[in-house]
Design a protein that fits this description.
By secondary structure, this protein is of the alpha/beta class. The protein has 2 domains: 2-197 and 384-396, Rossmann fold; 208-381, 3-Layer(aba) Sandwich (Rossmann fold), CATH 3.40.50. Helices cover 42% and strands 14% of the residues. It has helices spanning 17-32, 71-82, 111-114, 130-142, 151-165, 174-183, 208-217, 237-250, 267-275, 294-300, 315-322, 333-339, 351-363, 365-378, 384-396, and strands spanning 2-6, 38-43, 58-62, 87-90, 103-106, 168-171, 191-193, 224-228, 256-260, 283-287, 303-306, 327-330, 344-346. The chain has a 7-stranded parallel beta sheet, with helices on both faces. Strands 10-9-8-11-12-13 form a 6-stranded parallel beta sheet, with helices on both faces. The longest helix is centred in the N-terminal third of the chain and has 16 residues, at 17-32. It starts with a strand and ends with a helix.
């Protein structure tokens, strides 16, 4: 069997949830694939690092000729037309217009349907060029005005294309499946739940010297609460900072708030809140941090706080639990489902609930210990090996 895989997201330098999902599933495929099957990993550039270490029955095909935008719909679609495969796996929901009958894709969530305001209205295409304007006109014409060429509409259009034309849809939680079935007229049997997991680099670390070295690298001299994720509206970072400011007004404890992650949609509002705050010296924005250092930061943190508004899964929840760090997260949807009984749940829109949760965990050692114990047990239910086995079985069906 000849199986094509879109490896473009797995090959990016700065990976977040969807990119890590693609990366780890491909890495596990290499371990379990039938030697009689052939795999082609499609990418925009040559595969990097360990992703480039391929078994004999794996090949990398670099699809790098222009255009550099709409790679999936132009370049990958052309490849599917001229060099057919028996199956195609796309780890995120954007499948090419031309694709094999046996195409399987993962639709992680449909937050773009429920929270339009949390997604960028920026148009796709090269910056400040006539091409971007041409794309916008063509999209409006070919969709009869139903869609524009912005990122939000591309999410919405590509999800409908996948749901209609993919042979099978994978999603990563019960919550996401329920939302998909609630929104779209699709046969329930077409959608399979295969959960995400976390990397084994996230673990309890006993090397305190190394932990201290990472803290010193980022000038973290006080106990701190830690958030990891894009600094954007969808992740509710603005309200997280407001809740932290409330906490500081009510507590004499000198805890800092550490934010790790790249800037996302709505960051300007977040930056303005920090700069105008009396606690701006206690709010540390580290930007992008290499994944090898994140386990040390999680081990150093007093609490991992993740009050996001919408997630299809929430991999950072598992990463924190695996490091023995107590977790505060949202009481809504996938976050509640994935954390089980092992996290302190709060209403992400209620500032007093979030700030009270921070205070409760630092003043109740029994509760904190209980959450750590439950978290370490909870993460045993997830592994990339199981995710990959179920996914490959589905593809080959």
């Amino acid at each position: 069997m000849l199986i094509g895989i879109d490896a473009s997201r797995a090959n990016v330098d700065k990976k977040t949830g969807t990119e890590w999902y693609a990366y780890y599933v491909i890495q596990e495929f290499k371990k379990i694939a039938d030697p009689n099957d052939q795999f082609i990993l499609y990418s925009k550039e040559k595969l990097r690092g360990s992703l480039s270490e391929l078994p004999a029955n794996f090949n990398n095909k670099v699809l790098n000729w222009p255009p550099k935008f709409l790679w999936t719909q132009i370049r990958l679609a052309w490849e599917m037309l001229v060099h057919k495969t028996d199956a195609l796996f796309v780890p995120a929901h954007t499948i090419p217009l031309i694709h094999p009958k046996n195409t399987v894709t993962t639709l992680h969530d449909i937050g773009f349907e429920e929270y339009h305001q949390l997604y960028s209205p920026k148009d796709i295409g090269p910056e400040n060029t006539a091409i971007k304007k041409i794309i916008k006109i063509l999209v409006i014409i070919f969709t009869f005005g139903k869609y524009s060429s912005n990122e939000l509409d591309y999410h919405r259009w590509s999800a409908r294309l996948a749901l209609k034309h993919a042979k099978r849809i994978i999603t990563v939680s019960i919550f996401s499946k329920e939302k998909i079935l609630e929104k779209f007229p699709i046969n329930e049997r077409k959608v399979s739940i295969i959960p995400n997991a976390y990397s084994p680099i996230y673990r309890v670390i006993h090397d305190q010297d190394k932990i201290n070295a990472i803290k010193n690298e980022y000038n973290l001299t006080e106990p701190f609460f830690l958030y990891i994720g894009r600094q954007e509206e969808k992740k509710n970072v603005y309200k997280l900072i407001q809740a932290y400011l409330n906490f500081k007004k009510q507590s004499t404890n000198n805890f800092q708030l550490v934010l790790v992650g790249d800037k996302g949609y709505g960051y300007e509002k977040i930056a303005k809140l920090i700069s105008s705050s009396s606690q701006k010296n206690n709010i540390k924005t580290l930007g992008w941090v290499d994944s090898k250092e994140l386990p040390y930061l999680l081990n150093a943190a007093e609490i991992f706080i993740f009050p996001t508004l919408y997630e299809g899964f929430g991999i950072p929840i598992l990463e924190a639990m695996a490091c023995g760090t107590p977790v505060i997260t949202s009481n809504y949807g996938a976050m509640k489902e994935i954390s089980g009984q092992a996290a302190y749940l709060v209403n992400p829109n209620n500032l007093s609930e979030i700030s009270s949760a921070l205070n409760r965990l630092i003043t109740d050692p029994n509760l904190k210990t209980n959450l750590i114990t439950k978290g370490l047990q909870r993460v045993r239910d997830f592994s990339w090996s199981n995710t990959a086995k179920q996914t490959l079985t589905l593809i080959k069906e």
